[in-house]
Here is the input.
Amino acid sequence: MTAAWYGARDTLRRRGGGMIATALVLAVAIAGCSPAETPQQQAAARLAKAEVAMDECKRSVGLADVTTPAGVVLDDPATRGQALTPELAGQLRLKVQCRLQLDELLAARRPQ
Here is the structure.
């Protein structure tokens, strides 16, 4: 390799580095100019995403017709001692098999 090749390579590196820095500055400037979502919009988007995820999970376990549980407690005192109906059994299955999606849905529903 000759000195001319090294000189050309160094020149390209210097120019390329400047182009990258310019692109980064432009990207940050454009991102700073875009309007940000309000907290209410963020909460609504989170809730919508959580509801979709929960519906997908319910469909994947074959329980699309079962109502979404209002909590994650498996041994709920409100239902203790009652007969195990298909609806109650389905809700117990949802609490176990869709736990992550249910946690996110309940957190998104909680007022901030």
Remarks:
- Helices lie at 3-33, 39-60, 86-97, 99-109.
